[in-house]
Amino acid sequence: MSGSQQSGINAPNALPSRLRLSKTDRRKDCQLVKPNYGFEKRQKELAKKAKKEEKRLKKLAQDAPAEEAPAAPEEVKPTTL
Fold first, then answer.
1. 3-state SS string for the chain
2. Quick check: pTM over 0.90?
3. Which residue range is the domain that position 32 belongs to?
4. Per-residue pLDDT reduced to its tens digit, 56-78
5. Mean pLDDT of 43-67
6. Number of domains in the chain
7. CA 52 to mean position of chain CA atoms
8. Is the distance from CB of 14 to CB of 8 less than 8 angstroms?
């Protein structure tokens, strides 16, 4: 068999030209996606901030009933002029 009549997997031009990838297309196809560490860090910070806020509100809700109980019996006396 001559070089132009080769067929099979090992032949570099076995596919029609419309189906072959150019060298630049093959390089683009092989590149891996780089991780976006900035986005991951921001999401982690937002989650941490939300958790901290939940804890603050929960603690505030636990402390609030103890402070409101003594304030309830107090009455406001009207003043006359």
1. CCHHHCCCCCCCCCCCCCCCCCHHHHHHHHCCCCCCHHHHHHHHHHHHHHHHHHHHHHHHHHHHHHHHHHHCCCCCCCCCC
2. no
3. 22-64
4. 999 999 987 765 555 555 666 76
5. 91
6. 1
7. 19
8. yes
